[in-house]
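Dear Dr. L.,

I hope this message finds you well. Following up on our conversation about the binding site, I have prepared a predicted three-dimensional model of the protein together with adenosine-5'-diphosphate. For your records, I am including the exact sequence and ligand specification that went into the calculation, followed by the structure tokens. Please feel free to forward this to your student if that is useful.
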Amino acid sequence: MFKKILIANRGEVALRILRACQEMGIQTVMVYSQADADSKPVRLADASVCIGPAPSKDSYLNMQAIISAAEVCGVDAIHPGVGFLAENSQFAGMVEDHGIAFIGPKPEHIDLMGDKISAKDTVQRLGIPVVPGSDGEVVDLEDAQRLAEAIGYPVLIKAAAGGGGKGMKVAQSADKLEEAYRFARTEAKACFGNDQVYMEKYLGKPRHIEMQILADTFGNAIHLCERDCSIQRNHQKVWEEAPSPVITDVQRKELGEIVSKAISTLGYRGAGTIEFLYENGEFFFIEMNTRIQVEHPITEMITGVDIVREQIRIAAGEKLSLTQDDVKIRGHAIECRVNAEDPETFMPSPGLIENYHAPGGLGVRVDSHIYAGYRMPPHYDSLAAKLIIHADDREQCIARVRRAIDEYVITGIKTLLPLHRRLADAPTVISGDYDIHWLENWLKDDGDESQAAEDMKKVA
Ligand code: ADP
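The resulting structure of the complex is given below.
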């Protein structure tokens, strides 16, 4: 097993990885930017190295600085966390070229899945169902027009290099296609430096369902059940659940077997998530993330598997610590993303945290790096905390979400806690009968359920 791991990330995910390392008796090195000098993971790590100023491009994305820190500190492995360099194959390759283990997949698998066109093509060949759409890149407007007619409107233009919901635009009808096509290409170029786009049928009322997988270097691959991340705003997940309120045991087993087999055939290594849209009883692949996800804790709560620990063990050349038969689902879990944002306008709200009291009690887990007196810097994403609730069933889980939020005190900054509290009371959330468009309609109608339902009919 590794003796020392460098954590190339920040915030709550850095703390999450640090906790796993400490429990495994592994020394930790945190790299940090000048804006994060007093952050909790930096304080708790065995050693820390400042790698540059606040802007990510000069610190958390500075590969050379991170590798230098790793060499100076003599680490055996680097965990990239979520975001920043987690899905950068060049970084993964550089790490391995320096004789350091990269806690993640092989660089070629990061590349394969990082390009959504090659990802779709690959998984389709491995027997995974995909969203109907273009066969590869859409090369020009004429191509787009011809394809859209064949697929049928509405269609979605998506960036091949996409992520975070960027470079994506719907065309409801033929007269809107040119605008959508140009918008997606321009945004893709601006965000990813790559303007390649492809086309998919735009699904009117899908749910977002994703499968957590783990694979070791001995060809063993398992799945840890699905997560339902349909409650979204701007294609960003807000509230996640595991298991999904609408997936049956038979569907879970069938899909799980397909993805595990595909992952094993691919020779994939580490943790990953295969994302699907689910509509009318059918699953359609949209993308694979070759890293842990922000919402991984809900899977940990219902399966009891420490996913970060498994990642570290796999990277150290050990076998998975469990087989598919050992995976048992217990109860229900919900994650509320407590972003430092105004719950009405969603404007970021960084700054000084004056008071902080986290909730506790049975089934309550808070993954957060914030504390009273901590100043959330404005330079990074707004995730302040993840409230993760586990209970024997979904109804008790939602009741526990309400209780935990009522107990949670964060002052000085605005957070999404009030929004989550309203969600926990919303009849549609309680019924579990929501899709990826529901939250935006509900917000637009200021929580008026009947109006949101009317809007949904229009979308469909
Ligand atoms: P990103 O990598 O930018 O997150 P994804 O392909 O994972 O992009 O899609 C993000 C979200 O966009 C999905 O969760 C879903 O809400 C929406 N979406 C993606 N593809 C489609 C589609 N074909 N039809 C309808 N919505 C879609």
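In brief: The chain has a mean pLDDT of 96.

With kind regards,
A. P.
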